[in-house]
Each structure stands twice: as C-alpha cells, then as structure tokens.
Amino acid sequence: MTLSELIRRFRTLANDKVEPYFWSDAELTDWFNDAQDQASVRGRLLRDTTTPAVCRIDLLAGQQAYPLHPALYEIISLQIQPAPDHPRRDVRRVAIKAPEWLDQHARDWRAMDCPAIWALQDETTLTLVGKLVDGEVLEIEAYRLPLRRLDQPSDEPEIHQASHVHLIQWVLHQAFSIPDTEVFDPQRSINAEAAFTRYFGPLPDSDMRRITREDVVHQNVSILA
Questions:
Q1: Which of 128, 98, 102 is nearest to 115 (CA)?
Q2: What number is the average pLDDT over the span 191-217?
Q3: Pfam families per the record (predicted)?
Q4: Do 104 and 180 reside in the same domain of the chain?
Q5: 166 and 140 both lie in a single domain
Q6: Which of 24, 99, 111, 186 is deepest in the core (most CB within 10 A)?
Q7: pLDDT band at 85, cuts 50/70/90?
Q8: What is the pLDDT of residues 162-174, one digit of tens each?
C-alpha cells in the first residue's frame, strides 16, 4: 500500500473524510513512519546482511571504536574478514560481551594484543577488543529500521505488504490519544494500540534491551522507548 492509500484507509476508519480534516496529512505521515519503526523493532521485520552502510565496517589498526548505522537496532552476529594481503585467511567470529564479563574472564582485555574476537556495544558505537589490521572488514548481520522515511504519496513501507494495513492501528492509537481535542477518545486509542501489539508484538523495555545486548546471541540497541 502507498502512503496515500494508508492515509485514505485511516480517514475512513476514523470518520475523517470531510475537509477540514481533524488530522493533517503531515501528522498522519509522521505517525505512519513511527508505526513502521515500531513494527520493525517489535516484530524484527527487517533483517539485513547486504546493505554496506549498515552491515560493513572497514577496520583500521589502532582504532577500536566504530559508529553503528543509525538504522541498526539489533545485532545478530559479527565476523571479521581478513585483509586481502594478510597471511592468515581465516574469518573470525566476534562475540559481544559486557565489560564485567571481560573483567572476570580476560582481565588484561583493555591491552589485549591478540586478534579481536570480542566487542562491546553501547547505544551508537561498537568497540572491538583486541588487535586489528588495516584492511580487515567487520561484517554485521542485524535487524534494522527502514532506511527511507515515508514522504511522498506514492511511497510504500519497506516492511512486507501483508503488514501494511496493520500500521493503521498505531496511527489510530496516536490520533485518538491527544487530550483536549474534539476527537480525544482514550478507549479507542487503547484498543487500537492493543490491536497493533497483538499483530507486531510488545516493545521490549530498556532493561530487557540492556540484558539482551550483553552475552547472548542477539544484541539490542535502545532506539524507540
């Protein structure tokens, strides 16, 4: 569905078909972008291994910290491809660990001189632990947010088309939750949010994202709460 089709469907469900509208197209566009972000995080809908800006970092000797792409919110796996001219051709898997884990299991990790096999992750940065070589490449498998915002009437959400119509529930939730307006309807807002959650799942809270980020397979980045 295009953005214009989604807005038309919303106006039908919200009984907002006659100008002047209760909600502007600009407001609805913002909420549909929010809805797609929410859906992507809740449902882990956009897995990526191929977008270079998201999934590839060229490494440099002596540089340990690297910014993550702003659309990336959950790392699935990391591996380092060797430099083309390096005698060792093995691919190294990299595990994300908490500083406390490293303190317990590798007390000299801050000065470690062996090839990097661990990493620390915070909200926007990945810090590799160990020695890096010029020309090595970090490959990231991750879940991400949409790369393009909905803007033009012909734009379509990046998530699967079967999920497009369910984005409307988030927009209904937002539209009817604004207090001190003629259309304020808290119960309808609650019902719409519940319908959205039933389809896409709950949003992980900050504690769950922090716990998940450390020492398990999937590594979450706090991004929506």
A1: 128
A2: 77
A3: SU10_adaptor
A4: no
A5: no
A6: 99
A7: confident
A8: 999 999 999 999 9
- pLDDT, residue 121, reads 96
d(CA 41, CA 201): 9
**Number of separate domains in the chain:** 2
Are 160 and 136 in the same domain?
no
Quickly tell me which residue has 């994202």 as its tokens: 209
* Rounded Cα–Cα distance for residues 1 and 205 (Å): 30
3 state DSSP class of 81: strand
Q: Which residue has the higher pLDDT, 203 or 214?
A: 203
AA letter at 201: G
**What's the 3-state SS for 147-171?**
CCCCCCCCCCCCCCHHHHHHHHHHH
Q: Are 60 and 136 in contact (CB under 8 A)?
A: no
Q: How far apart are CA 195 and CA 49, in angstroms?
A: 31
How do 92-96 and 72-81 pair as beta strands?
Answer: antiparallel
Structure tokens at 50: 């191929």
- Residue 164 has a CB neighbour count (10 Å cut-off) of 21
Nearest to 53 by CA among 134, 140, 128, 149: 140
Residue 156 lies in a domain: yes
Q: Provide the residue range defining the domain that includes 64.
A: 47-144
Place of tokens 């259309």: 183
Average pLDDT over every residue of 149-171: 99
Confidence category of residue 222, pLDDT binned at 50, 70, 90: low
In percent, the amount of the chain with pLDDT more than 70 equals 91
What span, in angstroms and rounded, lies between the C-alpha atoms of 221 and 115?
A: 25
